[in-house]
Amino acid sequence: MGEAYSWLKVVHVLAVISWMAGLFYLPRLFVYHAENIEKNELVKVFAVMERRLLKAIMRPACLVSVVTGLGLIWVGSWLGPIPLWLWLKIVLVLGMLAFHGLLEAHVGRFRDGREGRSGRYFRIMNEVPTLLLIGIVILVIVKPF
Fold first, then answer.
1. d(CA 22, CA 20)
2. Is the pTM of this model over 0.85?
3. Which residues contact 125 (CB under 8 A, 6 or more apart)?
4. E strands, the chain, where?
């Protein structure tokens, strides 16, 4: 494995941290956006913040996370019999990607003035990446299976 694996892991961890920051923050912006929907100037500010967060941080970090994650599987010789913990991690990462896609859809609905969800919905939604992250970290560090 060697040095290439270590550097790939560094880039992967940094990208995941950046991606997770966006996955935590964007639903919080949605809470404020949904609760201030009648304030046109404020809504415009939230729409810009949401779009920039998504385009400048979340999409690139997501892409780098996935590419380096696949690279770690390749360089780390995990392509043989894949252990159960890694399969479960992949499933949780797919859940994180689906959540990211859901956030993308909400950004579009807010932009188009079609979002009807409440602040409470987005507060609850804000817990999803936390739960997925806890599962992923446990699987990667403990490798219980």
1. 5
2. yes
3. 27, 30, 102
4. none
